[in-house]
Amino acid sequence: MVRRGHSFGFGPDQLTLPCAPMTASRARPGRVRLAAGLALALSGAALLAVLIQDHSSALPLGLFNEGAREYRWLSHACLAALLLATGTFAVELARGRVLALGSLLRRIGVSLLMLEAIVFAVDRYVSHSPTARIGGPYFERANAAGEFVFLRRAHAGSAYGFRQAEPSPLEPSGKRLLFLGDSYTEGSGRGLACNYPNVVERELRERLDPSLEVMNAGVGGYGPREEAKLLRLLDDDGVRFDAIVVSVFLENDVTDDLPGTDRRVIAGMNERVPHSAFLRAFHPLNSRAFRYAVVLWRLGTLSGDERNAAHREDAACLETPEPFPDPLPKHLRAYVPRRVAGSRRVLANPRGMDELIGALRDMEAQAKSHGVPLVVVLFPDRILADRELRAAFPADVAESDAPRRVHDAVLEALAGLPVIDTLPLLEQLPRAYRESDTHLSDAGNVAAGEFVAARLAELLPQLAESSAARSAR
Asked: Would you give the DSSP letter of residue 61?
């Protein structure tokens, strides 16, 4: 039996029985200092995380490619709130007396921690289930190296969510090419028949081997580092292949893998988070609750053009080139300058380029360990290849040399690897892109597939002979 007036230490300050609530003035100094000390430690850790993540060189290229301005305002608001909380708790600790503001801040903090625990528990299902019907289109798995790999939700054609109609066996019946890449590889064609890797498969069956197959392991949203992780996951699962073709889209692959960050699935969406466990745990803007709020806000503010951009369909191929949009969609007019600015940023800070090249060398090493060749296919920034698009922008965007310099720098860095550069094709091909975005149109996909297949038909037999010769030594 509990007597009236007896109190229990619980919650942000102290929780007492309803019959005798304890006021701030009656709280014992020792208990006040304990509560204030714990709150001060938590707010201090969060304050340190904000300073490290947003006001130091820990993340040299930041955490986001887009929305950086809005993120900066939120970070400043977090910094101000944490300075206020830390100062308040420090005063309580020194005086041994509860302040009304400190009591309110602790109650808010405990409520946020409880919300985070609930959201974290829900997200364990939403973001780890390949068949969940809630949340976004992605789930994640860990490979044997402990790296998290995000994938599309599973469907009847693929347990990995790859864009294919029929499941692929682990062991192919004939030769198999594994295609790795982002949405350019996953496919912007309206149907599989006019998707770039499928066109390559059709062409190579005629040129090299009727039984040859292409496994399209492209995943929208990937950067080269994600492709390297996926390659390890497929090897863990026992998927076999005879050559690897990595498609690099220079418009965003040089900025997708920012130094000091990783991609994780939150709310079924691929989200960039700091690699540091300390920053993930204590920075308020890295919390699951905040990321869920951001996802809901994004879904609620998407325009019709953005929802239709690079929309995946299962329709007949459009044989004629798509018309050039006039006027440009609002999101495309905003997107292209951001990407040009991203190229400038990479040139100013080469660590972004280092991430790209490092990931490609990682895949090269994996390919060598399997005794199979690796070929890189380069797709240029659209504004570099599309004259009509350049004409629609002012000189600071249209005449920027940054996309060309990034293209040339990547080619130089990949010296020694077999590379197929599609720029000479696409800059001569009118209307190679979709009307609404920077992905290839059906006509562009077919032309690129035929071009890449012709080069692979020359390269693969030579690479196979070289590999066999090395093995024989």
From this structure: T
Q: Provide the angle, in degrees to the nearest 10, between the axes of the packed helices 100-126 and 288-301.
A: 70
Distance (Å, rounded) from C-alpha 433 to C-alpha 380?
12
pTM of the prediction? 0.88
Query: What's the number of domains the chain is made of?
Result: 2
- The residue segments making up the domain with residue 289 are 138-472
CA separation, residue 401 to residues 65, 396, 406 (Å)? 20, 10, 9
**Euclidean distance between CA atoms 313 and 439, whole angstroms:** 14
- Over residues 30-57, the pLDDT tens digits come to 889 999 999 999 999 999 999 999 999 9
181 in Cβ contact with 246 (< 8 Å): yes
**Residue with tokens 């300050």, as numbered in its chain:** 13
Q: Confirm whether 329 is domain-assigned.
A: yes
Structure tokens at 290: 């905040």
Residue 260, Cβ neighbours under 10 Å: how many?
A: 18
Which amino acid appears at position 146 of this protein? G
Beta-bridge partner residues of 214: 177
Q: Where does a domain end: 92, 126, 160?
A: 126
